[in-house]
Structures
1.
Amino acid sequence: MDKTLPDLATAVAGITDGMTVMIGGFGGSGAPIELIHALIDRFLATGHPKNLVVVNNNAGNGHVGLAALIEAGMVAKLICSFPRSADPVVFTERYLAGHIALELVPQGTLAERIRAGGAGIPAFYTPTSFGTDLAKGKPVEVFEGRSYVQERWLKADVALVKAHLGDRLGNLTYRMAGRNFNPLMCMAAATTIVQVSRIVDPGSIDPEAVITPGIFVQGVVEVPNPQQEEDLNRAKAVYPEAAE
Amino acid sequence: MDKTLPDLATAVAGITDGMTVMIGGFGGSGAPIELIHALIDRFLATGHPKNLVVVNNNAGNGHVGLAALIEAGMVAKLICSFPRSADPVVFTERYLAGHIALELVPQGTLAERIRAGGAGIPAFYTPTSFGTDLAKGKPVEVFEGRSYVQERWLKADVALVKAHLGDRLGNLTYRMAGRNFNPLMCMAAATTIVQVSRIVDPGSIDPEAVITPGIFVQGVVEVPNPQQEEDLNRAKAVYPEAAE
Amino acid sequence: MTQKLTPTQMAWRAAQDIADGAYVNLGIGFPEMVAKFQPPGREAIFHTENGILGFGEAPAAGAEDWDLINAGKKAVTIKPGTAFFHHADSFAMVRGGHLDVAILGAYEVAETGDLANWSTGPRGVPAVGGAMDLVHGAKTVAVITDHVTKDGKPKLVQRCSLPLTGVGCVTRIYSSLAVIDIVDGHFVLREKLAAFSVSDLQALTGATLHLDGAVADLDVPAL
Amino acid sequence: MTQKLTPTQMAWRAAQDIADGAYVNLGIGFPEMVAKFQPPGREAIFHTENGILGFGEAPAAGAEDWDLINAGKKAVTIKPGTAFFHHADSFAMVRGGHLDVAILGAYEVAETGDLANWSTGPRGVPAVGGAMDLVHGAKTVAVITDHVTKDGKPKLVQRCSLPLTGVGCVTRIYSSLAVIDIVDGHFVLREKLAAFSVSDLQALTGATLHLDGAVADLDVPAL
């Protein structure tokens, strides 16, 4: 069994129009910038994929990564908890112009819905959002005298994930708070594609320290020294770079 | 902050009659034998605690650990998935005589109910047990054309847990498949008491390798070279040993 | 009935259908033997409910570590690529549809795909373990079972008489006489021992055996 | 109004109530400042939604690691005892009642304990983040807020006019003029700036201030 992929272009080749794509990361930490940019490259070359439904905690920052994906016009709908950032202009303009749909989900509910999708739990109850606008239209049930909102699982066709170490079986570790939504999205997507800083031999990762077991992963591509969204934005980077 | 406890007797001192006690382990792996035996010691000395509701995957094996707890007459009800073992005579006799109640729960549902208790999810839906005797009386709902059973969270007053390394903040690691239900029970109990093979300084456990963050733990007691139920049973051990 | 397959032979036959790289959970008992018969060049990855993926074979006697056991409480080993996880993550793998194959034992299997394998009725101590979870989620839920009971009664039936483990969950049966798929509420005979005719088999089966093209010989080495 | 507390002073006051060893989540913005003012001899453990427990202070400029940030996307550091975990575990800590204290900002707080702090209405881009989760689960859900808006209107009201973050969730308010508990659907005045009388405060508050014994002076250093 060898889940390693030769390059980024191969890694994103299976993503087609209209798919639901989970993208890991919380802001820039744990965001698979190179996978996102490879997807933009494919769109610029072929016109596909487009009309994507993207699941991420945020809505991008600046003009790289998720913001660049939105700016390229590839995203029809965003499911997220916090579409604000230091420089959210790309999403904000499209959203206010009605060019992109938004499903706003409380952050803990978003995480739990994704986990539920991966764990075969079609629905669960949470106190979060009870009595608020975000609970409108959702079933409410009382347990032990307290009211809870029924929330549904969230699954995806593809997850694009950033990890730290990975082996050919798909076992993964993460870097610090770069973990965030990544392990959950691995569980919830039919196809999980992961960029890792280094591919190591099976057994190099302590079995106790595996965060995502390989069963949740379909493809692993090595991206040494991955870019950080924060660094790119401080350098005012734009993707793709304007032609000279 | 220092959650370390001086000895096993102190560790189990707060457990009172009628409490719901989660006990970690799957069979003997990850079973906190020394904490259980300390609880039996207290009962033998004071007559308390009794009428306990115990949550464990199994129902004990031989005459040590959970089996000894049952044999001592301290357990009124057991919530478990698989009350069979190589030598289940202690539970079996009491159950067939009507002296101990049993709530049988599918293993994955048991795990998820405990996690739900720890995660503030009062109920969830699972395909498991739909159409079976174990779903009787439980609400059923159809999602996307498939039927699911509503299951409720499971919480405890106390969890008795076996971990490997622990620090004074309560951060824990486990040993191999000894992990099993232990991290979930840490989450679901009001008071989680953990026996660890070694107490280490904070920072000794890699932050990436912490399995149970200290927020889920209230007490840590060091038990070097803990006993294994399997070894005790192969040696035909009985707890407490008969008086000479 | 003397020519029927042994449990070992049934396990061998089941193993032939497991693809390279498949994620597989083997139930306690007969199904555990499937791991021994992986065809050369294929390597399945075995999952055990109690929190190990990619475990290895049993250790030598005396070399057991009793924190490293499978769901049947037998000692196993680690190998390169093994991962440990807790029970909620383990059953997320099961329930969430991440396993390719689950192979279980059976008291009865109905043509509807219903399975009864956890309780022989109200007497004794009931025990379910992970069986009710395992029948949901895996892409193939297969059963290894004698074709008939010790008394010669069919175990493959129209409707189960014993308490159910799951409804409409079994997709394939490796019996001691045949390989049978469950398709749209029917038993479809795929392979049978050459010594048995279709009508012989039908007489030992509690529901109609349907044919869908040729029935292959169930050809298993002596072992 | 010139004597009102600054945000820094409100943060200082809130910090005085955090016990040694408390698990605390501080909302983005003003509440983050609470961490600076832990009284000597006490050490709280700070949780951030994005998967860190027990993180340390901000690193020096240029020493940031952008995989090591808090919920406000600011760089933090690790210290002995830090633990990392994923978002579902992080919100299990929140929703599951494991935090001792959550401190948030507010647009409005009602005497019922209702909080509005995520949306100023239908215009613009809505964003909720973890606020709706944080208001459930912590034993103390406290708010740091100016007592009145920039226009001088009460932020402590009978019923919120803005979209709710949570119903009946706030237990204590650290305002720029007072410390107020919410008990059984009432504002109960615990402390006030000495320069303000109870009736001064009542005039600036949109619901009745109840008294339950003596009202202490809200005494905060200059900072």
2.
Amino acid sequence: MIDKTLKTCKEAVASVFDGACIMLGGFGDPGLPGMLLEALREQGAKNLWIIHNGAGQGDSCLGGLMGDGRVRKLTCSFPSHPGNQAFAERYMRGEIELEIVPQGTLAERIRSAGAGLGGFFTPTGAGTELAKGKESRMINGREHIFETPLFADFAFVRAYQGDRLGNLTFRMAMRNFNVPMMTAAKVSVAEVDELLPAGQIDPADVHVPGIFVDHVVQVARHPVLAAVQKVGR
Amino acid sequence: MIDKTLKTCKEAVASVFDGACIMLGGFGDPGLPGMLLEALREQGAKNLWIIHNGAGQGDSCLGGLMGDGRVRKLTCSFPSHPGNQAFAERYMRGEIELEIVPQGTLAERIRSAGAGLGGFFTPTGAGTELAKGKESRMINGREHIFETPLFADFAFVRAYQGDRLGNLTFRMAMRNFNVPMMTAAKVSVAEVDELLPAGQIDPADVHVPGIFVDHVVQVARHPVLAAVQKVGR
Amino acid sequence: MLNRDGIAYRVACELPEGSYVNLGIGIPTLVGDYLPQGKDIFLHSENGILGMGPAPAPGKEDIDCINAGKQYVTMLPGGSFFDHPTSFSLIRGGHLTHAILGAFEVAANGDMANWRSPGDKVPGVGGAMDLAFGVKNVWVTMTHVTNKGKPKTDLALIDVTPDGLVLREVAPGIDPATVQAKTEAPLRIAPDCREMNVPAKFVASQLTA
Amino acid sequence: MLNRDGIAYRVACELPEGSYVNLGIGIPTLVGDYLPQGKDIFLHSENGILGMGPAPAPGKEDIDCINAGKQYVTMLPGGSFFDHPTSFSLIRGGHLTHAILGAFEVAANGDMANWRSPGDKVPGVGGAMDLAFGVKNVWVTMTHVTNKGKPKTDLALIDVTPDGLVLREVAPGIDPATVQAKTEAPLRIAPDCREMNVPAKFVASQLTA
């Protein structure tokens, strides 16, 4: 019997190694794997390359990992959100390498990796500072730049429901980067609100088929990310 | 008030012009827009470029359009299915241009167009007869070929539920090419089993958001495509 | 001249029925509060939402329903949720009709430089560049900036055209010459240039020098 | 030698628990009928299905649930439906563990030429090329073909390795020399090469010349 469930986040992050590349899901709080992040802080691996939309906020979750000095490189679209002090201070001191990627290009590079593609041409960013050093060509009369697939050693996300086969669903705006990230890492892990028996998720409602997912951990949300209640579905 | 519904398939195909490029959804019967196809046969536009997974079967739907001599070019992955006589005869006489595309590449080229990308590199087909004339390069130690986005003037699909805003859902294996096709055409039309009031489709269940869809027509399925009953959801 | 809500109000009035609109952070977000009644206008957020409604009542926030500015939002009937690749397919593929962005500077050809403010400690681009490249009509809401770099309250509705900037409307109490004096790029005055028609509550009391 | 069901049976026995498997058209489809009991093995179909079960009972077919061979199928608990881009992401991205394909010819290096049979009136590739390029373990079920092009019933289990074809098992009643005689490419005989262990009903009565 396939059983992709793990009892604890600690087990789920145990194999993270120094220098690993890690995709972190979430946009704002929805979908952010807060408990896996805290377990990763405890676990201790360093010189990490983080792929995430932002740079973390405050002193917990990714903000905490930044503050702990565990990140050597950040690939993201928007690290300039207020509350990013832990990152900003180390970045200004030159301790963290920063790769800025337009948000849609970031999502598409991750998808491209998971989909077994070798990269794509996009108009976004052509002719701007972000195109420097990138191959460029005219396609249908418009300048495009070449963007490469973005792989990771690990992907950590928060999902809503999961089962022992790895099938995942997301509530509302939780899907964001989490869907493509589950496809693009060697080891993909989801912490979930609810662990359901196999077969309880309608095949039409599965947002990430279990084939893409390695481990599922049921755990309450990180208290900092659960400041307000769930209201609707 | 936005109202994307049309009363008849006849209205939905009225603007198809001679030489138009048309994406036809469906893989086998599920998702095939049989009633729009029959309306298109009646409508009379000719020299059509059809993008579809196959070449049609029998003498109705796409098979009928082929038999009527209305297709000048077919872009597809698998035209060699038994029952394709209408296409095969004209193809063998040199009356129809055929572009063979691996099935995954076909789906991805359509998605690429709808997603505003300029094309992508894929390993599929590298080094084979299908790579002839295509740009090729080594990426991560593997040969890839460049594939271009595939646009259309019209996209016709069958969906399960729709609303006046253009939101669509699909049953089971109806999604296939239909989801990306709705994004890649200047005019995208879905014939649907059920027309629901706006707001009845849960936001989490929408497979194609209405922004991608121009017209929705509620009509019973083509009798040839409804040989067996619906059983489950 | 207009206050911030006045800018949002004037922009909201300009949106036609059937618009699919991305609202940026700041003044653009306020546009959602002034959408014309009875028109179907869909608001999009980069994080995978189409069909956002107004802010929820206090206590009715849903932990998983936020916009790109990380504010809690509600959903209108007919909305949908999707993932980031779909959300940016929708942007980059030209499916949105309007993007309303903030920007610290707009050049005469409409180029925006809103991803790296001079003096920002940390650069960031977010989804703004995808929107600028992908959306048919990009509208920029901004506090008018003099060539000395001092912010002003909003003064005018200006179209970016292939022939340069065209002044279409001036804020109440402002004349075209004042707008030109506060604008580094040359302005052409539209033949039908007029004073904006906005309720008095949206007019700031005076031009802060 | 084996009959068609025997080929499918032998292949099904080879699949480990946790396999994610695409079954091609023809003999591969039969593999679904012989999956080992009690093992979680997921069957994938190009048209957007993971977790297919056996064929439905007569009268229980669902109009919208077919496999890539256009046959009605059922779903097992834990399955899922998705669109073509996702289905081929799953293939091309290396997420499937096995693809079981038919092929009219396999060269000694494992290259397949199953998209254009000599003499076919109309060429076609379908999803076979994506599977051949994307899946870690591609298994080919075929009726053994002599260098004269005549089909035979199945004779052997052969691994394609960097060092060429390796004969692992022979069908009941067949010796390695017979297999080599019917195979154009050179075969190496594995040290532990043995006769297949399959129920008698799967053994064809004789080698049809």
